[in-house]
Amino acid sequence: MNLEAILKEEFGYDTFRPGQRQLIEKVMAGKRAMGIMPTGGGKSICYQLPATILPGITLVVSPLISLMKDQVDSLNEVGIPATYLNSTVEWHDREERMRYIESGAVKLLFVAPEKIVDDEFYSWLTALDISLIAIDEAHVLSSWGHDFRDSYLKMIEPLKQIPGTPAWLALTATATEQVQDDLANILDITDQNIIKTGFDRDNLALKIERGIDKTEFILNYVKSHIDESGIIYAGRREDVDNIYNFLKDNEVKVGRYHAGLSDQERHQQQEDFLFDRINVIVATNAFGMGINKTNVRYVLHFTIPGTIESYYQEVGRAGRDGLPAEAVLLYAPVDLRLHQFFIDKSQGDDQYKFSLKNKLFEMSRYAETESCLMKFILDYFGETETNPCGRCSNCLDDREVVDITSDVQKALSCVVRMNQKYGKKVITRVLVGKDDMADDWRHFEKLSTFGIFKDKTLKETSRLIDFLTANGFLRSSGGEYPILLLSEKGSAVLKGKVNVARKRELERVPAAKPMVADGSFDVALFEKLRSLRLSFARKQGLPPFMIFSDKTLKDMCVRIPTNNGEFLAVSGVGKVKLEQYGADFINEIKEFQEAE
């Protein structure tokens, strides 16, 4: 069986991405397998391609209702019959779809996990010839994950009772090693059937901006990327509304999305973004789960997320087409308090709150680190044998490196002299020598390190403590009232065995520069093809990226196809796309050449 030929004929791609072929081969052999691949790594091909070959139906279980319609539309667009059943489908439409599925005409059926535990639906499901069960966003099965859903876990036993011996495929983009082990146990997947391609996104540049006017930065950034699609995440609805109104007042085509809007308005704003009627959407983290828009060029975070997993999933919505993209975190330490407040008010038990606080601590370490940002994230997910990415804001930071060993020894010595019993706030105030600490009943004023940083501000000293924590010289006890403890690395500094260097502080970090086109394709032709794509999208009621991705249009601009054979060689063009659009796009390219 020539899998590459099927990949090109059905989906328009010449080669598999890392991990895809191995997973597909395991599925075709009837195995239970799991794929751990980054967002945009092509997970869906791993069950979509087998579905075109296997004799029965492929059942895809996903918690992302918003993604189901996108995927079904995309599959039908390339001639692969698919449908979905979830709470958005009216009863009369549901009955019609069920009869259609029973006839054997459908190759992929997408369902929500809640449907599996519905007795009536499950009874109907067991009568189908199911060849493959695909579980998307599998990390939500694990209570160790950042987005655990009990309803997802409840469906596993019924799925195991499905008649026959269907293959299984679990897929996720954000799973720590602990979550991976938990999933393998829940789904009975052996180590040799787990394919990890790594979490690195080599087209994504991670950046952190500190000490800036966030609103001003957002306006300047959006204006410098005015024709590109982007998402701006904010922690509160109020922030979303303020940024939305500010950008709108400055003539930006912008939308917004949060739980305070009506269902109708949220749906309309999402559609406007998908259909390129607006370039930017400002949203809480309620937006984006399952948004398959391929041409998002940037993601800005106005507020720091609460976990590395959430952050990496959200930034993963940029550059899904493989072209260069940016993710910029606008960091202010005060933003951590919002998450702390939500954790304290949550209904979870002490262990759950402890877990969330530890995840927030890791996120704060990321925001303060001076090491490679991508490597920090990869280390978090268990990929410790990686090199600096060379493209993040820390790797590209050319500020002078200065030796701060003396100051670090003073700060660490203060922690030790305070018997490692206090948190950052008290330590910082003792180091600076604040009056309230001098008058404290614990007699901090008698310490030799009291006021040793009296020539520094509280903010400067606090940033130094954050730096020491982020880079492993101090460690946090976690818990409701975390205290700072000396680490082995910090102890080595105190003993004079290790020196510490740091980038020199600036009043503000320069703003991110807009991405520049690489000049490898004709921009004028690209804009002509975009317009043609938009006209097709409007006629068919589809988002433009479902006609062709930006990456496919740019490949056309490089290859300049003028006949069917050349057009078929374009990345992302298969037999159905050639039949539907080939003549029009070839004609547009020829007319452009003649006009030059």
TrEMBL record:
Annotated InterPro entries: DEAD/DEAH_box_helicase_dom, DNA_helicase_ATP-dep_RecQ, DNA_helicase_ATP-dep_RecQ_bac, Helicase_ATP-bd, Helicase_C-like, HRDC-like_sf, HRDC_dom, HRDC_dom_sf
BP terms from Gene Ontology: DNA recombination; DNA repair; DNA replication; SOS response
Statement: the UniProt record of this protein carries the keyword DNA-binding: yes
Positions of the HRDC domain: 519-596
Keyword Hydrolase found: yes
Source organism superkingdom: Bacteria
Catalytic function, reaction form: Couples ATP hydrolysis with the unwinding of duplex DNA by translocating in the 3'-5' direction
GO-annotated cellular components: bacterial nucleoid; cytoplasm; replisome
Domain Helicase C-terminal, residue spans: 214-364
GO molecular function: 3'-5' DNA helicase activity; ATP binding; DNA binding; four-way junction helicase activity; hydrolase activity; metal ion binding
Catalytic EC class: isomerase
Helicase ATP-binding domain mapped to chain residues: 24-193
E.C. number(s) listed in UniProt: 5.6.2.4
Cited Pfam families: DEAD, Helicase_C, HRDC, RecQ_Zn_bind, RQC
SUPFAM superfamilies: HRDC-like, P-loop containing nucleoside triphosphate hydrolases, Winged helix' DNA-binding domain
Recorded family membership: Belongs to the helicase family. RecQ subfamily.
NCBIfam families referenced in this protein's UniProt entry, alphabetically: recQ (TIGR01389), recQ_fam (TIGR00614)
Name recorded for this polypeptide: DNA helicase RecQ
Species this chain originates from: Companilactobacillus kimchiensis
